[in-house]
Amino acid sequence: MGNQAELNKRREIADRVKTLRSAKGISQEKMAALMDLSYTTYVKIENAQHGLSQKNLMKLRDLLSVKTDVILYGDTDSDVTFDEYIELAKFFNADNLTALQSNIQKVIDIMQKKSKVKM
User: Fold this and answer.
1) pTM for this structure?
2) Please, what are the domains in the chain?
3) What string of pLDDT tens digits covers the 119 residues of the chain?
């Protein structure tokens, strides 16, 4: 990686990936397996020693249930903040339907408070 700005951008992306993964309760080992990567390669992504290919970015997007903009830029075209996405990611780490239903209600409550959803 050539210049400092590129390295800083890679670090920012790596930090967001680590934060999102942690919020979902997924270990590095499991994420590596889910992405069909070696553990070493995945750790290098989170430590900003390895860039993200488009293929791996799409895998992360799907596994973390976020838009690619959240991974790349820490924001989206909505008014939902990165921290709110982290909270939402925690909600969707449910192991059963009852917990998922409860979490969906929490998401609706958050969205209503932010005046995003009118019901």
Assistant:
1) 0.63
2) 4-113 (1.10.260.40)
3) 458 877 888 898 899 999 999 988 899 999 999 999 999 999 999 999 988 888 898 899 999 988 888 888 886 555 556 666 666 555 444 444 556 566 667 777 777 776 544 44
